[in-house]
Amino acid sequence: MQLEQQETFTIHGPQLEVLGEVESKLPAPAKKRSTASVVLVALALVSVFGIGGAKLKEKYNALVPEHNAFLRRKAAASQYSRQVRNYLESKYQQERNRRYQEKKRSQQKKKDYLE
To answer: Which sign does the torsion angle of CA 12, 13, 14, 19 carry?
Structure first.
């Protein structure tokens, strides 16, 4: 249904009377639909980026200390993990070397025994 075909209706109330008085005092260009659309878009942008931006910044500022603490714990855990991994690797390498030496000695004993 198009706007012209819709049934017109009126709403009465004290707030509308005040708004009607304010609207009547506006200059002619401000009464146009395009101007109202631009004002509405500007108001929406201000509400989203102004008030919404402030709320987002508040949440961001609240999360920054927690995030920084998380990053510090992660770095410490990473360093600890690296040290543990190096320690386990060195123990594994020592065990491998010990087995190799035992194998080498046992082979040498077999050679000595056969001679």
So the answer is: negative
pLDDT tens, 31-61? 677 777 787 788 777 777 777 777 778 888 8
Tokens of 48: 């989203």
Give the 3-state secondary structure of residue 3: helix
SS (H, E, C) 20-64: HHHHHCCCHHHHCHHHHHHHHHHHHHHHHHHHHHHHHHHHHHHHH
Global pTM value: 0.37
How far is Cα 65 from Cα 113, in angstroms, rounded to an integer? 71
Report the 10 Å Cβ neighbour count for 35: 14
